[in-house]
Write a structure and sequence with these properties.
Blueprint: H1 3-7, E1 18-21, H2 38-47, H3 65-73, H4 77-94, E2 100-103, E3 112-115, E4 121-122, H5 128-142, E5 155-159, H6 167-180, E6 184-188, H7 197-200, E7 207-213, E8 220-226, H8 231-236, E9 250-253, H9 256-276, H10 278-284, E10 294-297, E11 306-307, E12 321-322, H11 323-326, E13 330-334, H12 342-351, E14 357-359, H13 371-382, H14 387-390, H15 414-422, H16 446-459, H17 467-484
Parallel strand pairs: 1-5, 5-6, 9-10, 9-13, 11-12, 13-14
Antiparallel strand pairs: 2-3, 3-4, 7-8
Length: about 475
């Protein structure tokens, strides 16, 4: 029995809220017999002994979609409206904002689909990946609310969501689930493209099932392990460098922290653009990570080992790594502290066009964070600082920071700026509360701080991009658009 069919029997969840999407699924009928559903019958026979308990109400194969659409489109105004809204979401996430219409054509037994100005076509004339996207999103969207408009929460158990989909579409599917629904999802997957979702959202947990023999026995158990950023997991999935094709362009950042911040900035920029410039929003929202663009983490000082020249071939030189050989059209983002190393700046200016590198006009990416978010997280973290250090600081002084640009600094990191703001006037201690030392003042535990900032963003959705963060997003999206036009 598959792992996921075991999970369907999870006793802590209400039985009528469990929905199972098996590997056998599709929108094309496989029999002429009316009301015959062989995919459901196969799933029942293989995994569910109680066929009355698990049937078409909680096993979703896509075979009922034609009749579901017909019922809604011929039903009440509210039913037609939800199909219209669903089509708009399909357009946004999977069809580059082209108008999408789903039609249960009367003289056929399959759903027809019309995309933009193209001719209406039966679903089997389109890619199987698009059929999967519809099967995997329809029920989740329809079941967002009950008939009275109250939010509903279900548990969806899905076998191999990446079936027939390229990497960009898989990520769009996950973004659809995270942004447009409020359900729980349990996946079994062999897709390495989903693994970095755990870094980008604290709503995602990745675990691996390992078959381990019992001691002195021929029997075995399945052990479950948390495995975020686990290289062994990649190996077990058979992922090699040659498995990952290049996106249309790359955005080079110093490390995971910058990538996480910039990803959240880009999401916020799009959300703000939706109201301020709807046309530009429609153009930019179609860009998918790992398809239209992807990130490369170059790790600060390692930048000197890379060559960005088109004709660089001497692998025996110190700069033996050719960026152009391993990554597509690039935009390199660097902190302002690169200016203290003029040889690096000269190398970038020599090897890259001006539009292919972007130097922040502040010490580091953390200086582009909004003031309120930094203060919110600092208050939480201060409670965990040891007592001896706390004696020299007064966290209440943090409320005296009223300048929105206080943390926008070209010389000091936000750790030092926080310490300066909350240090007691009479204190002579050299102990730091937030700075990682007495130098430029980078924030302590940068990755933990980053995750807490992202959590604060999620809990306070009204946060605003700082001017420098907005400028950065504008430059990034212009780069992506240029490389995908």
């Amino acid at each position: 029995m598959t792992e996921i069919s075991e999970l369907v029997n999870f006793k802590k969840l209400p039985e009528n809220k469990n929905l199972y999407i098996p590997i056998l699924r599709g929108m094309r009928p496989v029999t002429e017999t009316v009301n015959k559903q062989p995919y459901i019958e196969r799933a029942q026979k293989d995994y569910f002994s109680n066929s009355q308990k698990f049937d078409s109400k909680n096993i979703i194969t896509g075979k009922c979609l034609y009749h579901e659409l017909k019922i809604h489109l011929l039903g009440e105004p509210e039913q037609r409206e939800i199909i219209k809204k669903y089509e708009e979401k399909l357009s946004q996430y999977f069809f580059d904002n082209e108008t999408v219409t789903l039609i249960p054509k009367h003289d056929q037994d399959v759903v027809n689909i019309k995309i933009g100005e193209d001719k209406q076509r039966p679903i089997y004339e389109l890619g199987d990946g698009l059929q999967q996207a519809i099967i995997l999103t329809y029920e989740t969207y329809i079941k967002k609310y009950d008939e009275y408009g109250n939010k509903q929460t279900y548990a969806f158990f899905i076998e191999e969501p990446e079936l027939h989909m390229h990497a960009g579409m898989v990520r769009q599917l996950m973004n659809f689930y995270l942004n447009e629904t409020n359900h729980y999802y349990f996946f079994t997957t062999h897709s390495n493209h989903l693994l970095d979702m755990a870094d980008e959202s604290d709503q995602v947990i990745i675990q691996k099932f390992v078959k381990e023999p019992k001691e002195n026995s021929k029997e075995f158990d399945f052990k479950i392990y948390r495995c975020d950023r686990d290289r062994d997991l990649l190996a077990s999935l058979g992922v090699k460098p040659s498995s990952v094709y290049l996106a249309n362009c790359t955005i080079w950042v110093e490390g995971i922290i910058d990538r996480l911040y910039i990803t959240k900035y880009m999401e916020k920029y799009l959300a703000e653009l939706k109201d301020s410039d709807p046309e530009l929003y429609k153009k930019y929202r179609r860009f998918m990570p790992n398809y239209h663009y992807t990130f490369v983490e170059y790790a600060g000082s390692n930048l000197t080992h890379w060559s960005f020249s088109d004709d660089y071939t001497d692998h025996l030189d110190d700069k033996g790594l050719s960026a152009k050989a391993v990554a597509s059209e690039m935009l390199l983002i660097a902190d302002d502290d690169i200016q203290t190393r003029p040889e690096r700046v000269k190398a970038l200016q020599k090897e890259l066009k001006k539009e292919n590198y972007y130097i922040l006009k502040c010490k580091e990416t953390e200086n582009t964070l909004p003031k309120d978010s930094i203060i919110n997280v600092a208050k939480v973290k201060f409670a965990r600082i040891n007592k001896d250090t706390k004696k020299s600081y007064d966290i209440l002084l943090i409320d005296n920071i009223t300048d929105e640009n206080y943390f926008d600094h070209s010389e000091f990191g936000i750790g030092k700026l926080l310490d300066q703001a909350i240090k007691k006037p009479k204190s002579t201690s050299n102990k730091t509360a937030f700075s990682d030392g007495l130098g430029v003042g980078t924030i302590k535990d940068k990755l933990k701080f980053c995750r807490e900032i992202i959590k604060d963003f999620d809990e306070n959705p009204d946060w605003q991009l700082t001017p420098k963060a907005k400028q950065l997003c504008e430059h990034i999206f212009q780069h992506i658009e240029k490389c995908n036009s």
